[in-house]
Amino acid sequence: MATFDLELVSPERLLLSRPVEMAVIPAYEGEMGVLPGHSPMIVALRGGVIRVTEGGRETESLFIMGGFAEITPTRMTVLADEATPLASLSRAAAAQRVTEAEAALAAAAGDAPEIRDRAADRLQAARAMQDAAQAA
Amino acid sequence: MASLKDLRGRINSVKSTRKITSAMKMVAAAKLRRAQAQAEAARPYAQRMERMLASLGTAVAGSPDAPRMLVGTGRDQTHLLVVVTAERGLSGPFNTNAGRFARARIRALEAEGKTVKVLTVGRKGAAYLRREFANRIIGEISYVNIKRIGFEQADEIATRITAMLEAGEFDVCTLIYNRFQSVIAQVASEQQLIPAALPANDTAASAEAGALYEYEPGEEELLSALLPKNLAIQIYRALLESQAGFYGSQMTAMDNATRNAGEMINKLTLNYNRTRQANITKELIEIISGAEAV
After folding, report:
1. Cβ–Cβ of B215/A27 closer than 8 Å?
2. Do A70 and B51 touch (CB under 8 A)?
3. B71 has a pLDDT exceeding 80
4. Residue B49: what pLDDT?
5. Is the peptide bond before A73 cis (omega within 30 degrees of 0)?
6. What residues 33-52 of chain A have any CB closer than 8 A to a CB of chain B?
7. What is the value of ipTM here, to two decimals?
8. Dihedral of the CA atoms A20, A21, A24, A27 (nearest 10)?
9. Domain limits of chain A?
10. A104 pLDDT band (50/70/90 cuts)?
11. For A103-113, b where at least 16 C-beta lie within 10 A, e where not — what string?
């Protein structure tokens, strides 16, 4: 089956770099499956799970806390803010993040809408992390 | 002249100093390797980020409501200098170099009639600049208790700068840090953060690429999310370079100190032996002249 080059980088290191058949990414406006030959796009990502398919099976799934993806017909580059393999997500840490994000959102209630939006995005990412941790 | 006992004491004390400096040199070498690996690992993200920004920047540049972080406030009056130094000393001229560079910049800017604000990262730079520019320092960030600098810290600094930009507290933001040139050479240098200096690439190629891409959400929202990330990554890179440079500088300084201690020990040992021989000779003369007198 046709493949494209997937690169997943976090600020701290290069996590993945190899040809894959399909990847599902949590794009800003909903999940998005990327196959070889996809039209060129730059998308923002929200907190969610990236699933990678190779040889007809799902081989990797990682949780990311938001980021960006650049897609061209032959490659996809994902710039993740923070990436953790699903297997090593901890429920306790996720729950703590949700609590922190809720507190931050509450504290931002009186601030400018952009700041509130950012806090809300973080809370959403933290909730997604909790869901992913529970499912794993 | 110092007595034999004094000399022995001094030799021993220099020997234990040498032990400490040579141990510090080894530790610095190990940490340098780790810091370099970390800096290496951060490179791919920065490169990809640059590529993405180049294609986005050309798509948005010139539009009247381009984000402030990209085009600045349009003025050039208030400068924010972010000075990155180390948390610890015993590293040769490392901290002083960055401090001196910052001082020259502050003087030059003030001579032009600009207002200068300083944000220091690292304890040593704060201590250096506080003496002369205490009233320009608006914040001091220190990571003295953090073992390994991560992206989190860079993000924290970036958030702070962003908040200040949004509050209109400065017009131009410049980062001053020690660039890691090699293990023995760290160069104090500056980098403009805001307005963002977009990666210069051949405009024809990126214009073509920019026309091709589809954006979700729109270009401007994307850019306004991407720019703070870019700011954080630039700071992260500077922090890592400064860290690697610090260990390089410390290693060199400790190597010199170890060598100097060795020389000192040789000199003291020579002195010790001469004194000992002089004492023996003196005693012999006393004995012989005593025997002759009988």
Report:
1. no
2. yes
3. no
4. 87
5. no
6. 39-44
7. 0.80
8. 80
9. 4-86, 89-135
10. confident
11. ebbeebeeeee
Q: Are strands A41-54 and A30-34 parallel, antiparallel or unpaired?
A: unpaired
Which of residues 140 through 159 in chain B touch A, CB cutoff 8 A? 150-151, 154
For A40, the closest of B51, B213, B236 (CB atoms) is B213
The nearest alpha carbon in chain A to B233 belongs to A11
Distance (Å, whole) CA B139 – CA B206 = 39
| CA atoms of A3 and A20, how far apart (whole Å) | 5
* pLDDT attached to residue B243: 92
Say whether domain A4-86 belongs to CATH 2.60.15.10.
yes
CB contact under 8 A, A11 and B55: no
Whole-number percent of chain B with pLDDT over 90: 54
* A31: CB partners within 8 A, 6+ apart: A24, A25, A48
| pLDDT, tens digit, 9 for 90 and up, residues B202-250 | 444 444 444 578 888 887 788 888 888 889 988 999 999 999 999 999 9
At position A15, the amino acid (one-letter code) is: L
Pairing of strands B172-180, B186-194: antiparallel
The alpha carbon of residue A23 is apart from the nearest alpha carbon of chain B, in Å, by 17
For Cα atoms B224, B230, B231, give the angle at the middle one, nearest 5 degrees. 95
Say yes or no for a CB contact (<8 Å) between A42 and B221.
no
Confidence (pLDDT) at B254: 96
- Mean pLDDT across B52-78: 75
Domains delineated in chain B: 36-245 (3.40.1380.10)
